[in-house]
Amino acid sequence: MTRRDFINRTSAGYAGLSAWGLLRAAPAAAFSLPANGTDTHGNGRRVVILGAGLAGMATAYELGKLGYDCTLLEARNRSGGRVWTIRGGTSETELGGTPQTSQFAPGNYFNAGAARIPHHHQLTLQYCRELGVPLEIFNGSNEAAYLYNHQPASGLTAAAGGGATQPAAVSPLANRRMRIKEYHNDMRGYTTELLAKALDQGQLDQNLTKEDVEKLVDFLKNEGDLNTAHLYKGTNRRGYKTQPGAGPTPGEVVDPYGLTDLLRSGFMQPVFYNVGDYIYEQQTTLMQPVGGMDAIPKAFEARLAGKIQFNARVTELRKTEKGVRVVYQKGGKPAEMEAEFCVCTLPLPVLKNIESDISGTVKRAADFVPYIKTGKIGLQFKRRFWEEDDGIYGGISRTNMDINQIWYPSYGFMKPTGVLIGYYNFYGRAEAVGALPVAERQQLALAQGKQIHPQYATEFENAFSLAWHRIPHSEGGWAMYDDATRRKQYPALLEPDGPIYFAGEHTTYLTAWMAGALTSARRAVEAIHKRVG
Amino acid sequence: MTRRDFINRTSAGYAGLSAWGLLRAAPAAAFSLPANGTDTHGNGRRVVILGAGLAGMATAYELGKLGYDCTLLEARNRSGGRVWTIRGGTSETELGGTPQTSQFAPGNYFNAGAARIPHHHQLTLQYCRELGVPLEIFNGSNEAAYLYNHQPASGLTAAAGGGATQPAAVSPLANRRMRIKEYHNDMRGYTTELLAKALDQGQLDQNLTKEDVEKLVDFLKNEGDLNTAHLYKGTNRRGYKTQPGAGPTPGEVVDPYGLTDLLRSGFMQPVFYNVGDYIYEQQTTLMQPVGGMDAIPKAFEARLAGKIQFNARVTELRKTEKGVRVVYQKGGKPAEMEAEFCVCTLPLPVLKNIESDISGTVKRAADFVPYIKTGKIGLQFKRRFWEEDDGIYGGISRTNMDINQIWYPSYGFMKPTGVLIGYYNFYGRAEAVGALPVAERQQLALAQGKQIHPQYATEFENAFSLAWHRIPHSEGGWAMYDDATRRKQYPALLEPDGPIYFAGEHTTYLTAWMAGALTSARRAVEAIHKRVG
């Protein structure tokens, strides 16, 4: 293939990509539906919305703009659902649990549910803009945070007597913390060295010209910071033993870890893979509202004055000739409400326990779409040792211990005290830890966290923990679809079931994200308005 | 080598690394010098400090704590030196230039000099803590920012008629913007695919066991997001053509760019290498003071009330029997001051033009240590289109055009207007652009920036530019040592020249950084106090 052929071919290949638009999401804007003839506005048609989380409130907000008469029924005494910020005074009692009240100092908090806004979730960002919610950066990928691979000491004995197929013995890199920058740069160094070697030796039969190979090797030299012989011998990118300073102090670079040590130390486990910008939804830049994620639900709530009935737990959802009838508990007594339409945003584990006339296919979806088990603990410390001692300002440390992750706050830098998230775990770990009494959860978080931060021992003050699968009115983290449930259960949630529309993150491909709740709301509003018009 | 030998060997290899302390810089703390017998305190000894930048002010602040009587002579009408924030109303006239006054709206600014604090610059962070300067995150590595490789159209003709050794023809990936995440993930994908192939084929003669190779290939599969056949076919990490959404909208992933296209498109130029966390001093997390970098000099200045003489340009520096005599211009008239010691923090290009008794070796250093040429322009726009349209919240776009970099503000997200840094360039580019009249600099910044952001055309409001090598009392960005100047010139700056001590970033291995200025100040204070004691 000649160069000209090559250019022609690849130009054609990229022809579909416009010069500007390729990966730019359409700028999200205030929602604006096309006029529906004379019936442009809702003309006061009644809509009952189940749940005052983001999906429910965005639905009411947008339907309200169009002239619909909305009422939200919310089982809790607060709005926001799984968008929930824990501050001093926050109380909760889990299903089967004992009451907890947070003792955090004023100004300290953590986001128990939604905690970050990807820069490409234009809809969430648009609502922040429209509702005047100030944002700041959520520091997701911090090269200074730690990795900690726990290996029980017993592993040594077992492997010493075992064969080559045994699990790795306790490695020199186990049971000690390592900066993410060390791991990243060592692995990049060794892998680029290996590839440069293969390319130098002409071992790879690629459709690459000699010039291409030279350019690729140049890239690798920089990517891995290889020396002139194309070898990785460590680099200042991974840090200094003694920092450069004034006078005759050039700084001293540390030797890298060994490749086989890294390979055999358990750092090939997925918990250590999912670091940095390798996950689309977690790529920099991530944002958060100033002062806590609940600034978003509070902003919606402020625009829905008088429309939300709190402490109103729905018990029945019935279809009638004119629309729907909803029965709910209000102040210990049953109450009911009729409306032309219903938008049901209840999480499926809640919906499945409500007496209702919803169709069998929706009921099956509620029964068979699993929700993730997940938990967090906020730990308040007397001082921000992670900042003062370790230079960690936000970001996430990762470990194969039960605590899974430690999140450092991306706000209040250098304040005297601080709250970090001492665990954020999923699945079996979340189930096991969530099954413990709160005092034992705290004990576990402190004991394991101390392996990474010995300062835990002297600086701890108090804690607040939660297991989302045990939180009333949520009973799970978010919907977890696999290919089979997407195919079999998901479609039922997308169509109106008579006068009942479904919304919430579980009705989207953005499960777990606020953007899912918000886009599902717009979809429901659009569908209702189209039907009316 | 047996596994046990291996473990023993590598354990010994890491034995020097303590479990906790390895890469942790000693926590910086308030400066505290050991007592010097009865003369612990300066007892009012007079010290004249030349320059009220960070080095000079930190010297005065610390000597003041010890009881010395310090006076700072500052040529400008402000403190901070190269720590300088441009706001509405800021005026400057460059050497040989015409006056400029910034028209930025209230709340908008950019940091003309120092603009970021690495998380490992503990000393800078410690002074922020000690002086009560609130910090926020500076977003340095933004995967959503752009790369733009400019290739002139004439390249096509030349290369079409040329041989294989000619520079690349205009490539399908030239003259269009690309998200950093696309470049990162495509290059990672292709390089890990190549290495996985070499490893799969057993082509690399490494000291790796079969198990090690399996683990490494697992790592590569994740690092590059390879498919089950270990091929890179693109991934959602690089973005979506249509985003996932509500209902039947799973999102559509874009095909990756071709490896040869990337290799031949000029993306192997260093400007595109230096992206993300590949430079130690630019690794996440970076910080900035809330409201502008000059919060740091202002905090020092507030603690030095009455000690700084502004508009006091030094013209002579003399050694006397009792110490030093400094002659300076004050209100158009010469004045002079005597002191026991002098701490000279003047940049070398300024020092070399002062009549003085300093030694020949210091004079030679002042003559031969080059300073970088560098410039920035702040551009105010009517709206933050980079946020609204492109989802870019802080971070840096990079290009091989003269503008070199575009910096998006890491503050004031979602405000109606904003100031971005339209170029930040160095060396020849900075010299060429800096030589232009300010109106032409602005024209150049807009014309080139428009290639990346077409919104420049309609949203621009006003600009303020500067070339540090043309700024009076600085005359350069920072000292640029190579091995030869470190060996030949640097040592002269580290020793006292009689009663004269030198401080400033040029007396450190942290050139260009505020931490350099601050650590040099502590070094000077320590030396003077030791001599007195």
From TrEMBL, chains A, B:
GO terms for biological process: auxin biosynthetic process. It comes from the Bacteria. Its EC number is 1.13.12.3. It is an enzyme of class 1 (oxidoreductase). SUPFAM superfamilies: FAD-linked reductases, C-terminal domain, FAD/NAD(P)-binding domain. The keyword Cell inner membrane does not apply. It catalyses: L-tryptophan + O2 = indole-3-acetamide + CO2 + H2O. One of its GO terms (molecular function) is tryptophan 2-monooxygenase activity. Residues 54-528 form the Amine oxidase domain. It holds the Pfam family Amino_oxidase. Keywords: Auxin biosynthesis. Pathway: Plant hormone metabolism; auxin biosynthesis. Belongs to the tryptophan 2-monooxygenase family. This is Tryptophan 2-monooxygenase. The lineage of its organism: Bacteria, Pseudomonadati, Bacteroidota, Cytophagia, Cytophagales.
